[in-house]
Amino acid sequence: MAGQAMTKPRGVTFLKVAIGLQTLTLFFQAATAGMLLTSSHGALLHDVGSRVMYGASMLYVLAAILAWRPGGGGPRPILYATGFLALASVQVVLGIAHMPSLHVPLGVLMFGLSTLALGRVLTTHLWGRPGVAS
Q1: Which residues of 79-105 are buried (b: 16+ CB within 10 A; e: fewer)?
Q2: In the chain, which stretches have pLDDT less than 50?
Q3: What percentage of the chain has pLDDT greater than the value 90?
Q4: Whole-model pTM above 0.85?
Q5: What are the distances in angstroms from CA 60 to CA 36, 52, 99?
């Protein structure tokens, strides 16, 4: 039992929090997108939420890096986090360009991917387990 606790990367908890925050902000964005249709406050909340969501995506990248090198985890979460930050960047551009036909489906995709990443990090101790290609 004590040997198992020693193999757990230190940065995994921060990674869980970062992905959880990102998933929560994406859910908030979906809710405020609906509010855009019914309230004048929806636009302000969605705008503020977009900035928080982008910051959460950056935090996810930082957490993945810290879980990898100093924490002893695998490098795969860095690829996921970097890809997600790229999707978030595209999402921001599409939102500013007022292209809802692409902005909304990408938002749904991002929420789904973030939920999957959260589920994965909550159900496994390490993404880069020994013997598994990372």
Answers
A1: ebbeebbebbeebbebbeeeeeeebee
A2: 1-7, 127, 130-134
A3: 61
A4: no
A5: 27, 12, 26
